[in-house]
Amino acid sequence: MNDAVSCYETLERYLKARIPFITIRTSEHKRALEIATQIAHKLSLPIFSHTISQGTRDIHSNRVVNEDRSVMGGLDYANHKISQQQNLTFIFTEVQDLEDDSPLARQFQDLAMMAIETGGSIIVITNKSVWGPLQRSGMSIALNPPNEDEMLQIIQDQISSYRGEMLIEWELEEEKQAAAILAGISQIEAENVIATLLANGSITNEDVKELMHAKDRIFSDISGIERVHIKEEYAIGGLEGLKTWLHANEKLLTADLRDRGIRPPRGILLVGVPGCGKSLSAKSIASQWNLPLYRLDLSTIHGQYLGQSESRLKEALSTADHVAPCVLWIDEIEKGLAGAIGGGDGGTSTRLVGQFLYWLQESLARVFIVATANDVSQLPPELLRRGRFDELFFVDLPTPEEREQIIKIYVKKGMKLELSNELLQQLVILSEGFAGSDLEAAVREVVKQAVVKGDDSVTEQTFIDYFQNIVPLSQTSPEQIESIRTWGKERAVPAGKQPEVVGSDSLLTKKRTGRTVLV
Fold first, then answer.
1. Alpha helices, DSSP H, located in 44-170
2. pTM value?
3. CB neighbour list of residue 501: distance below 8 Å, 6 or more residues apart
4. Local structure of residue 86 (DSSP, 8 states)
5. How does pLDDT run across 20-67, given as a tens digit for each residue?
6. Three-class SS state of 272
């Protein structure tokens, strides 16, 4: 059953039962009012609605009965009418200051007590919490944004009248894809997006991809997460295991999996050696999957007041749910959650971990998380257990074959040429122990010389000199790198080339060499 039907049936029962105070929790005031109007006509109930723009009006006749547009004026009118007439219902759509014990909340409580005596009902449409004693005077209903089934109906209703008048390539499959993308936004926002497509004079299958960016523009000014604009195609050398897994799971992110009893891919955790492409992978995934990329910086979440950090994280994750489908990049996640192990921050990090894990487990939005970590020892153990992320990948120092790919990518990008095989193999040998960032730094120095002194100044010896001049992290911090590699080889799936098993073929004698990608 879709959410609107459930809300309709619940509200109808509450009105038949003459519940004195009803809260409809939603940000879609117009949609909630339409549901209440439909019930009013069906039950022939006398219902009045109050808005700041129109005052109080009779829903049946659409006639303004009280021109005082203030909430207090609407309350006074409702109080007067309910005290004189049985079974009246009043709807208030724009009420502030009901979260705490305030004079306004007290007046609504008094009105609800009066409604009990005369069979009246007071309905408040709000997206905020309501003062406890007031809420306990009645019942509450949640009207969430349209789900996929409701969104499919909205899309079909809007474009059906244009079929035959303009080119509309969408069939049921494309309409379902569009509904999956737009699920989570309000009805009026979805109608605006579809109307924008119709204004082009046609709707093509390519417009399905445009919906992702249209939805992104709706939430472009919402704080909490940072939009990362992808300006180019990101080429990554190596990481074949990660690429294989991503290719196998790409379709699942937008597929309708409800009948299968599984959820879309939740995300991956990339751990490993610094500078080996973990952050670049997040940008590459968003680029290849044609999804908007957002970055959540957990270090900026922390606030100085009690509860402020948790509130900021909740807002950021809620924003991610709204802009889905998207890729959410959490860089160096261990730095934002490090206090959860040491406990030196008064329990703030522990609460953040709990809140993040709950969202990771329960959120149904199509948000694909790419979290990266360098120092895995700082991560709370509960974040690493199976089921949190879809997969845990270890990004190691590149192999000779991977270093060759990476060098080719950076040389082609910066110098617009291809190196001879002899020089390329020499650079691969010289770069033993280099991370991807070390290779980029070496090639960047060559490119800088080409810009300053001209391309003709660059020789094969130039490449050799600059590569020899780089001191990689594996030499400056060998103990740290070895510790990271030891942890990752048996606890995570290798993101690079799959390790080969050597020795006896017997399953009883074969030593465990680590996990692999199964697709």
1. 71-82, 103-118, 132-135, 148-160
2. 0.71
3. 510, 513
4. S
5. 999 999 989 999 999 999 998 899 889 999 999 999 999 988 899 999
6. strand
